[in-house]
Amino acid sequence: MARTWLAIEVELLGGGGIDCDPPPGRVMIVGPSHTFAQLAEAIDAAFARWDLSHLHEFELSDGRLVGYPDDSFEPDVVWQDHAKLKPARELKPGMEFSYVFDLGDNWRHRCRIEPEKVDPVVVYGIAPARPVAVWGWGWIPDQYGRRSRDGRDEYDGW
Hints:
alpha+beta
């Protein structure tokens, strides 16, 4: 298979009152037919998000916002539809952009397209139907700051 897939380094900078220092990260691979909506789902899975009922947004280096277009949420903002727009068409090696999960708690991610495209069979074993994480590092905080099942043992800082 040709080297047509993007490799994207995604680092979690913080959110929910937490700054991640050092930031945990994941390397995602994204194919030519994948959408930004699928990339968001893959990032959320890679960073152990379990309550997925929150909005998200990508901000591309040219200032465009990609997410769920909802005129009732921010009527003056022009959103690119995350279900239609494809990262492989909009992003190039070397570019940087951001991803925010949960616009209330503001879980911020810095995303960088790696310089070389990749062959998914070489780095993952198959060409997956959706974007996937192929490498990772660091400690992932719970999206609500809980350290126990009952939630009484919450973080008071990083």
